[in-house]
Structure formats: C-alpha cells, structure tokens
Design goal:
Blueprint (H helix, E strand, L loop, with lengths): L6 E5 L5 H9 L2 E6 L3 H10 L4 E3 L15 E4 L14 H4 L2 H12 L3 E7 L6 H10 L2 E9 L10 E9 L6 H4 L31 H10 L16 H6 L3 H19 L11
Parallel strand pairs: 1-2, 1-4, 2-3, 4-5
Antiparallel strand pairs: 5-7, 6-7
Helix pairs in contact: 1-9
Length: 266
Amino acid sequence: MDNQALTFGSLFTGIGGFDLGFERAGMVCKWQVEIDNYCNKVLEKHWSGIKRYRDIRKCGKYNLDKVDVIIGGFPCPAFSIAGKRGGFQQDDLFFEMLRVCNEISPDWVVFENVQGFVKWRKEAINEIKNIGYDIVDVILDARDFGIPQSRRRWFGICFRQGNSINPQLLQRVQGIESKGLYGVRSYVENTKRGWTHTIQTKDKWRAICSNAKRMRIDNGVSNRMDRLRCLGNAVVPQVAEFVAKGILQIDQKIKRNENIYRFDND
C-alpha cells in the first residue's frame, strides 16, 4: 500500500480555511490561487513556502503542478440569497475552475459554495460530468461540527471517471441509502432546534455561543488571523477536514481493493 500523502491545489483560496482543513487531515498543499491582496498577505504568512498565483484565468496545466486533489470555493454572490442571484450569467468563475480541473485532471475535485447554489445544481453536475468526473454532493452545516454558527454550505465531491475508482463502489456520500457524514442529510433542516447530535442539549449550545464573544473567536480559524470580510468568505476548517478525511478513507480502501459505501463516522 502506498502511504504517500495525497497532494492538493487550492483555487479561490481566500484566507486558507479550506486548505487548513485538508492539511489537518494529512494532505499536502502544493499551490494556491487567490486574487485578493489582503488574503495573499495572510496566505504568505501561514503558507510561506507554497507556490502562489493571483488570477485563475491565467492558470492551467502550463504553470500548475499536477496534484491528486483540487479544492475550491468559487465566489458565491451570484448564488447567495443575499445577492442578486444572477447565477452563471453574473459570475462564470465556476467554469474557470472546471477548465483548470479538466487540464490538470486530478483524481479528486471538491467544489464548495453557499446552500443557495442548489438552484444551479443540475447544470453544475452536468458540466462536471462533461469533463469526466462523477459527483456526490451534500449540504453540511457548521453547527454539526461544533461551530456556533448556522453556516450551511454545498459541497460537491467529484472523482475522475475511467481510473481505479469505480463510482458504483462509492455509492452516495449522502442520501436515503446512507447515514454517513455523522447522519447529516442533504437538503433538509438538520438543526431546527438550534442544537445537534454533537451538541446534545440546549444548555451546552448556549454555553458555546456565550463563550464566542465575537464571531472571529470561535469559527475554526485563529483569532485576529483576518479581516471580517475574509472570515465570512472562508470555508470552516473543521468541515473541510471531515471531507478530506472521507476522501483519504476512500482512497486507502480503493488501494486495498475494498468496497466503499460511505464516509466512515469517526
């Protein structure tokens, strides 16, 4: 069995919440792509030895190293209920991420966006399949990972067709057939009462929220690491780490020729 760590590249990196989660899971970052000046200052401080590029439109196979996984939370204003909801006509950077993934052809790709992106879900899935990937997707809420925020995000977890990964072995990451991902189900309210299976009582939930005196302090990334705007755009590292661990579990089971049905619960 090959124990070499999986490598990943990061698109729309922001302040690196996605990257932090994948590194915590044991993967190795090879490059980052981020256009914002302030975000680049944060990335330079915390990932000083990583290759970094500014504009995704100027990136591709000619300057990005081959990696096992590409991750990216493409911009959300065009899909958020708080925005104009112009979709792909308003912002086409989703297709730039598709282009890079098509050129680099990693084994895995993970897309992330706001819950409102489900309105464009079918179109996105068709485009992802057109470049040779199968996809499973899920809505994950930060509250189910101990973070005192109602922060529901869409994750599309994609694996390349025609390689050693048999899509039928993976089944679904989420859905009626599976209670994986800590029992969180796609596209339904998982936390109506304000607490979850990981936060068993209302008192415990209130204690966590009262201890988070400012939003910056208890959100999965270091206090004073960033400006509030950048923090609001960041992927919660605990959620990203869980997705990354699921990919690693599946990857290792494939290498051992084991059947894969869902992400493990531990």
